Amino acid sequence: MSMQHTKTKRAVKPKQSAEEVGPTEASGSVLTSSQEDVSKKTKSKKTEIEELRSFLSQEIASKKEQLKSFKEKLNFKEELKSLKEEIKEEIIASVHEVLEAWKATMEENLTQQIEEVNVKMNSMESSFNSRLDPIIQTLNQQNTAITQLEDIAETSAQTTKKLLSENKRLSDLLSKITEKCIDLEGRQRGQNLRIVGVQESREGNRDLREFAADLLKKVLNLDQKPLLGRAHRALGRRTRADAPARQLIVKVQYDHVLDDMMKKMVRSRDLLFEGDKISIFRDYPVEVTRKRVLFTETRRKLKNIQDLRYGLMYPATLRVTYKWKEYFFTDHKEALDFAQDIENKTDD
Asked: CB burial class (10 A; 0-12, 13-18, 19+) of residue 54?
């Protein structure tokens, strides 16, 4: 409206100036044409302004509609948000109610079950106590008995230890005494000889000592009869007529005579008396004889090896001389291994 008002004022002013100056023909025509142009332009501008106004009105209306729809949408979102919050609150409330109800139910059930379990446990405890009391009493008695047994065992262990120590001492003492007894027996029998193979009653009515002296002088080719302290048959009786004759045991009175006899016995291979083959041995204790017999196999092997000499020393030590070296053996197994080694070397 303000724009139209200003334009009309501009258009009116020429008319006022024309009347005041005084119209002429030339100036009148020019003014008319310019007024028409101005009016045309004014109309065209008005038209443009109207079109612009209508366009702007339409745009404003459309924007208002859009703004209205947007506001409606915003209102819907707010309502939706509030609805969600309400639903959420309702769900949470319902869940809380369900949980509270479930919790109450569970607490009640658990309380009942706990009470039942407590009742059962109390009954079981009383039952167990009634059963365990005699067991506990028995265990206490057994613990007491075990303690007593431990004390007794400790005392027995100490006593056993002392007894073992004493037994060892006595065993060592017995071994020494046994060795001494064997040595004494060997010394007592040191001048005794055992003659094997002499028939029973061969001596007839003669004194057995005289008969044995004649036998030794004849068999060993002695210059004179040896002086014998005593002579007798081995103890025991013959159980059968065809049983072997008992050994004849004699005691030579002098050591030098016994040594001469032993040297001649070593040189002699076969000893004969009135057609019977006899053997003469030193009279050793039984224990010594058993140990010496263990070297029999070794002595048999060594006998056939050249440049070797051997002898069985008292009580039971094998002495071997081979290639100017001497060896002593108290263990028959070691001696046998030594003899086999030498025998294998000589065979190679």
From this structure: exposed
pLDDT beyond 90 at 209: yes
The domain defined by 191-283 carries CATH number 3.60.15.10: no
Stretch(es) of the chain classified as CATH 3.30.250.20: 284-348
Q: What is the CA radius of gyration of the chain?
A: 76
Q: Where does residue 227 fall: left (phi above 0), alpha (psi -120 to 50 degrees), or beta otherwise?
A: beta
What's the CA gap between 45 and 41, in Å, rounded? 6
For the residues 116-130, what does the mean pLDDT come to? 84
Q: Which residue has the tokens 């509609």?
A: 65
- Which CATH superfamily is 284-348 part of? L1 transposable element, C-terminal domain (3.30.250.20)
Per-residue pLDDT of 289-301, as tens digits, reads 899 999 999 999 8
Q: State the angle between helix axes of 296-303 and 332-347 in degrees (0 to 180), rounded to the nearest 10.
A: 20
Using the predicted structure, report yes or no on whether residue 19 has a pLDDT greater than 70: no
* Residue 112 C-beta-side C-alpha neighbours within 13 Å: 5
For residue 165 the two structure tokens come to 């120590």
Give kind and range of the element (H or E) at residue 274.
Answer: none
Selection from 12, 8, 15 nearest residue 45 by Cα: 8
| pLDDT above 80 for 5 | no
Q: What is the pLDDT of residue 13?
A: 42
pLDDT for 238 equals 67
Count of residues in the chain: 348
